[in-house]
Write a structure and sequence with these properties.
Strand order of the largest sheet of chain B: 6-7-8-3-9-10
CATH topology of the largest domain in chain B: Rossmann fold
CATH architecture of the largest domain in chain B: 3-Layer(aba) Sandwich
CATH topology of chain A: MetI-like fold
Shape of chain B: elongated
Number of strands of chain A: 0
Helix content of chain B: 10-25%
Oligomer: heterodimer
Largest sheet of chain A: none
Radius of gyration of chain B: 25 Å
Order of helices and strands of chain A: HHHHHHHHHHHHH
CATH superfamily of the largest domain in chain B: P-loop containing nucleotide triphosphate hydrolases
Strand content of chain B: 25-35%
Number of helices of chain B: 11
Largest interface: A-B, 23 and 36 residues
Number of domains of chain A: 1
Number of strands of chain B: 20
Number of domains of chain B: 2
Distance between the termini of chain A: 36 Å
Largest sheet of chain B: 6 strands, mixed
């Protein structure tokens, strides 16, 4: 019978497919994850803690947090502004703006880093001027922040644009007609309506910012204790055959990734609930 | 008499609650407590002069001028795309008219052409409610008071009193803590109305306020709106594409078509004395006969209308618009001028019996007759009948009679 076709696959096939998927996950995700922690703790707790409290490691952690925090804050402000403009207004060059937002997805991070070197580096366009004014961007902290911001640029905006487009402008118009000013509309109406997607974008942005390697590697210069972020520190330690320390730092990154994943799952649950409520609202007599 | 309406499972809404002294507190604007006919020309509340609006190559408003008298409920009626919503949004300040030297927008003598939507102090009610989804009913209504600059903001206690008063007016006191998603469509629209009224607007602008509701709720709510308007007398402009709704609630109707105003007048004017073929056609179903003027009469086949009008010139083509109830059916030829036709279909479910006919000249004709007459004549599909003309509206090339 046709109607049963969808559920008619033999049980054996179902099980086989499920097992294959799980096996794949185990080999490519779970095993490496366990391996990270296994290697990190190979020489016991003391070595693990010592590896993480090493001044260079601490500096890398601080730098990663600084770069991530700044990048997320910048992209949060930019993402809201861009999504607001794109979703709520009609203007010339809107399509160009949407394309530009996607640019960091299309460009290899290494190229992104190189662009900054070409602009701000010693031989770059602004190199001489910067040098004359004693401003250091490349092989210094500002370059790392810039590269991280560039790479994580689309996450918040991309998350907000479709939601804000679907919500339309009527609530904002209603607020304006009731006498609210621009900032009041933003804080009392727009932001509360997008809060879950906003947080979701921030979580994705944070995860990507902490793990960024390529772009940061190009602009960092790998100066220990100064311009090494956590992923760069892992590489340096690994290349020095200091596996335990490398995996200790890596385990920290893995933990942060797991935390992001948890936050992301919780947010997805919240957003589904909000969407379901909205669907009810769409039906006038529900 | 129970004035209630049933909004599905909700409690019936009775008359807008008249609390002692409530109206003066809510609406300080003084308006002579003259009846509700409202058509009497009073002071002008809204005046729009020579408004133009284009979206790219599309013309939404072409040199539209409109006045709304103080305290009246005026309906902007027209098919979709006629420009009525654009006109409403221009008046609200949600859309700016094309720059034009003669364009002016005046509220009670004050030129508001350059003011933005917040400064104009209009209450705007959206078709899809546009309630703030992250706020309760109470917070929605209080919003307009909470966002005022600190100096003009009422105290929390007086905000609470005001919101309670409005909740009583819309009879949703018990739902103050609900969120919009937990309300029915009719309830949401009442909350939207209360929210708009909270800022004591000079004018209330309603954009197809009942358009998203089902027929039964819509009917009850529009009667309720009419009674509410009679209680609070705030000048109101209502956009609708439903001619029945306009006829029922409005003091005056402005019919729009193709970015222009076709006619402005009382419901009786617009319905019985349509200024154009469009208005005639839009205000209800009509039969159209292409005839001509002969000897001062409008003639279509054997049918003729004596009062074809003074301006009618012999030989001119004339279009006769006939409402279905202005035609008469007889089983046999009574000698009166009549059109021979064959019954195609009979629809007896409704306030009148609708008979679809095929005239001998080929036209499809619709006639509506009362049920008693239908039973008397006992016609059935396939029967031959004779259709006589009782009244018609005649339009010749340049003018109408």
């Amino acid at each position: 019978m046709n109607g049963r076709a969808a559920s008619k696959d033999p049980a054996v096939l179902q099980w086989a497919l499920t097992l294959a998927a799980l096996a794949f996950l185990a080999v490519f995700v779970v095993l490496p994850l366990i391996n990270i922690f296994g290697q990190a703790f190979e020489k016991g707790w003391q070595t693990y803690v010592a590896a993480l409290t090493d001044p260079d490691a601490l500096s890398a952690i601080r730098l990663t947090l600084l770069a991530t925090g700044t990048a997320v804050a910048c992209n949060l402000a930019f993402g809201i502004a861009a999504a607001w403009a794109i979703a709520k207004f009609q203007f010339r060059g809107k399509n160009i703006l949407i394309t530009l937002i996607d640019l960091p997805f299309a460009v290899s991070p290494v190229i992104a880093g190189l662009i900054y070197v070409l602009i701000f580096g010693a031989q770059g366009w602004m190199g001489e001027w910067l040098d004359a004014h004693d401003i250091h961007i490349i092989f210094a902290v500002p370059g790392i922040v810039l590269a991280t911001t560039f790479v994580t640029f689309p996450f918040v905006a991309r998350e907000l644009i479709p939601l804000m487009q679907s919500q339309g402008t009527e609530e904002e118009e209603a607020a304006l007609s009731l006498g609210a000013g621009g900032w009041q509309v933003l804080w009392r109406v727009t932001i509360p309506n997008i809060k879950w997607s906003l947080l979701y974008g921030v979580v994705l942005c944070t995860a990507r910012a902490m793990g960024e390697f390529g772009a940061v590697s190009v602009v960092s210069g790998h100066i220990r204790g100064l311009t090494n972020t956590m992923p760069l520190q892992v590489e340096v330690l690994y290349n020095e055959y200091n596996f335990t320390a490398a995996f200790a730092v890596a385990s920290l990154l893995a933990l942060l990734a797991l935390a992001s994943l948890t936050a992301k799952t919780l947010l997805e649950f919240q957003m589904r609930r909000a969407a379901a409520e909205q669907a009810v609202e769409g039906n006038p007599e529900a | 008499m129970k004035l209630g309406m049933s909004d599905r499972s909700e409690q019936p809404i009775s008359e807008p609650a008249r609390q002692p002294g409530a109206a003066p507190v809510l609406w300080s604007s003084t308006r002579p407590a003259s009846g509700t006919s409202g058509a009497a020309p009073g002071p002008v509340s809204i005046e729009a002069r020579h408004i133009h609006k284009t979206f790219g190559r599309y013309t939404a408003l072409q040199d539209v001028s409109l006045t709304v008298n103080d305290g009246e409920l005026l309906a902007l009626l027209g098919p979709s795309g006629s420009g009525k919503t654009t006109l409403l949004r221009v008046i609200a300040g949600l859309e700016s008219p094309d720059p034009h030297s003669e364009s002016r927008l005046i509220f009670a003598g004050r030129d508001v052409t350059g003011e933005d939507v917040g400064q104009r102090r209009v209450g705007f009610v959206f078709q899809h409610y546009a309630l703030f989804r992250n706020m309760t009913v109470f917070e929605n209504i209080a919003f307009g008071l909470r966002v005022r600059p600190r100096k003009q903001r009422p105290s929390p206690a007086s905000i609470r009193d005001k919101v309670r008063e409005l909740l009583a007016l819309i009879q949703l006191e018990s739902l103050a803590d609900r969120y919009p998603t937990q309300l029915s469509g009719g309830q949401r629209q009442r909350v939207a109305l209360a929210r708009a009224l909270a800022i004591e607007p000079k004018v209330l602008l309603l954009d197809e306020p009942f358009g998203a509701l089902d027929a039964k709720v819509r009917q009850g709510l529009r009667r309720w709106l009419r009674r509410l308007h009679d209680t609070v007398h705030v000048t109101s402009l209502l956009v609708t594409h439903d001619q029945e709704e306009a006829l029922e609630v409005a003091d005056r109707i402005v019919v729009m078509n193709h970015a222009r105003i076709e006619q402005a007048g009382t419901p009786e004017d617009v319905f019985h004395r349509p200024a154009s073929e469009f208005v005639m056609d839009f205000m209800g179903s009509v039969n159209l006969f292409h005839g001509r003027i002969e000897g001062g009469k409008a003639v279509f086949g054997p049918l003729a209308l004596d009062h074809a009008g003074a301006g009618a010139v012999d030989g001119q083509t004339a279009r006769l618009f006939v409402r279905p109830y202005d035609l008469h059916i007889d089983r046999r030829n009574t000698g009166k001028p009549s059109l021979r036709a064959r019954v195609q279909r009979i629809q007896a479910a409704g306030p009148q019996v609708r008979v679809e006919l095929q005239a001998e000249t080929g036209e499809a004709v619709v006639v509506e007759i009362p049920h008693p007459q239908f039973r008397e004549t006992a016609i059935a599909p396939g029967d031959e009948v004779f259709v006589a003309l009782r009244d018609a509206k005649v339009f010749t090339e340049d003018y109408s009679i």
